[in-house]
Amino acid sequence: MIINHSDVIDDIKKYPNNFFNTIFSDPPYGLGSKIYVDKKDGKMKFENCQDFMNKWVLTDEQWEEFFKEAMRVLKFGGYCVLFGMDRQVSLVKYYAIKAGFEECQSLYWYYISGFPKGYDISKGIDDRLGEKREVIGKKDCGYVISTSKIRKEQGYRSNLIDATREVNITKPSSDLAKQYEGYRSGVAPLKPCMETILVFRSPLYGKGPLEDVITIYKDMKGLSASVLNINGSRVKHKNEDDLKKSQRLNCIGNDYGPKTKEIYGKFKDSRSNIKAHKQGRYPSQLLVDSKASELI
Question: Buried b vs exposed e over 29-55: b needs ≥16 C-beta within 10 Å?
């Protein structure tokens, strides 16, 4: 494997046409950016392009250039797979489709360990009014502790040993602040627990999937990048009990008849013929980490 440490916009231009089967990236999400439509040219743009703590920037012009080059270097039916945050994907989708990509079924990474970032309205009111809030206790600063733990495990960044690990617990002072105690605001005030993985596909070589496979083999003596190896991606059963459980979950009702849009119980007599795939469960669009799976 070769790792090129460079600006992707510059690096991608070095590759020839129809070179990659897939492009995979975890780009800047633009979490601190506001998306709007420019009335002059009709394009989606960032009003203030910045990401988390202003560490990364990827402007709308760069997104447009990236997808233009991605379309060029991908093979027919090739995939562009990009991590993103649900509230900021509209601009990415816009420039992907503008470049000629087709949006496919998204994937979702469920990780359950996100940190909520809502603005505390009650504290903001007292601060604006110049009211001093009474300190009634202390609590751990969860972000600092969790970030310190992660950085220590990574081993190459400072683990915030000298950072403030406790914060004050205060109670509202003004009458208005008391009415808004516990209220928060923001574009993402809830605890984040998942990331969206956008999937785009470049145009097929043929008119449809079958024509794409046949014509690529006929004209290029190659294999299509547009089709997915489903059986090769199945989630294997842990043991025989897991296989039986999977088989049972494929049925519904007291009679465990197969799932159907038809009348309930119509095919209950044929339930013994329903078998789970021995190679494993059909791959889904949801990815779950080990900690989240234990909670589920």
Answer: bbbbbebeeeeeeebbbbeebbbeeee
3-state helix, strand, coil in the chain (%, to 5): 35, 20, 45
Q: Determine the 3-state secondary structure of 271 from DSSP.
A: helix
> What is the rounded distance in angstroms from the CA atom of residue 116 to the CA atom of residue 107?
22
pLDDT tens per residue across span 113-169: 777 888 999 999 999 999 999 999 998 776 555 555 555 655 555 555 555 567 899
| E strand residue ranges, the chain | 20-25, 35-37, 44-46, 74-84, 102-103, 107-110, 119-120, 134-140, 166-171, 184-185, 194-201, 251-252, 257-258, 286-288
- Tokens matching residue 56: 């990364």
Cα gap 192→282, rounded to integer Å: 27
Strand partners, 288: 110
Who contacts 196 (Cβ-Cβ below 8 Å, separation ≥6)?
83, 84, 85, 86, 89, 106, 107, 108
Give pTM, 2 decimals.
0.80
User: How many domains does the structure of the chain reveal?
Assistant: 3
Q: What gap in Å lies between CA 56 and CA 27, rounded to an integer?
A: 9
Q: Are residue 58 and residue 197 in the same domain, yes or no?
A: yes
In a domain, 202, yes or no: yes
Q: Which residue has the tokens 């043929």?
A: 206
Q: Is residue 3 part of a domain?
A: no
pLDDT in tens, 154-170: 555 555 555 556 789 99
